[in-house]
Design brief:
Blueprint: H1 3-13, E1 17-19, E2 25-26, E3 32-33, E4 35-37, H2 46-64, E5 69-73, H3 76-88, E6 92-95, E7 108-109, E8 117-125, H4 129-140, E9 144-153, H5 157-166, E10 170-175, H6 176-185, H7 191-202, H8 204-214
Parallel strand pairs: 5-6, 5-8, 8-9, 9-10
Antiparallel strand pairs: 1-4, 2-3, 6-7
Helix pairs in contact: 1-2, 1-6, 2-3, 6-7, 7-8
Length: 218
């Protein structure tokens, strides 16, 4: 099986990614979404965890050789970044969502030593805003960010533009179109449900408003 499809199948099987086009989830932004992704679930499944770790390590080595350091983005990317750093025998640091409000007030945690470059590990890419904020924090520490690896991306055009504008290459183990194709093939979705999920990504705000308007009254 293609590795991107294998990762997608694993995330669906362990319910790290859940699909509910008829009863969508509510995101922190208030938008309704037919998909919910929590890749931290994979940490509880040794076989899936091992496969994801191996794939992340393989891509780091194939694209970047041996960087000076691996960084994880808090919170979802910390464990994955630590696994990759351990496997490759590299130093590790992580980037907080914001600087600590006490102590040293750090945002980047870890001993940077003499590192001059870093590869960043993330679990999920939505718009890319928080991930790229971590990239900027590392750059402010004088590190060259060679690129970012993530487990999954929704594949929003906005995210692609944000990463391009930030000059940060992004690579992911799997993506939204692959996920939908795999879910439909394995009958997690009907063709009509797959179409609903495809239309959601094309315009998330309009999809959310349409669902809310058509939802039955309580």
């Amino acid at each position: 099986m293609d590795e991107r499809r294998k990762v997608a199948e694993s995330l669906l099987r362990i319910k790290a990614i859940q699909l509910a086009p008829e009863a969508p989830f509510t995101w922190a932004s208030g938008l309704r979404s037919p998909i919910y992704c929590d890749n931290r679930m994979a940490l509880s499944h040794p076989a899936v965890r091992t496969h994801i770790r191996q794939q992340l390590c393989s891509i780091v080595e194939a694209l970047y050789g041996k960087p000076d350091m691996i960084a994880g983005v808090a919170t979802g990317g910390i464990a994955w970044g630590a696994y990759v750093a351990h496997e490759l025998g590299l130093p590790f640091c992580y980037v907080r969502g914001e600087a600590k409000g006490h102590g040293k007030g750090n945002r980047v945690e870890g001993d940077l030593g003499n590192a001059s470059n870093v590869v960043v590990i993330e679990d999920l890419i939505s718009t890319g805003k928080s991930s790229l904020s971590a990239v900027e924090a590392l750059r402010e520490k004088g590190l060259e960010v060679k690129g970012m690896l993530a487990i999954f991306t929704y594949g929003f055009d906005l995210a692609a533009r944000n990463f391009e504008n930030a000059g940060c290459p992004l690579h992911t183990l799997s993506d939204y179109p692959t996920l939908i194709a795999e879910a439909e093939q394995r009958e997690y979705l009907t063709p009509a449900q797959a179409e609903a999920l495809i239309s959601w990504r094309e315009d998330t705000a309009a999809w959310s408003e349409r669902f809310t308007a058509n939802a039955p009254s309580a």
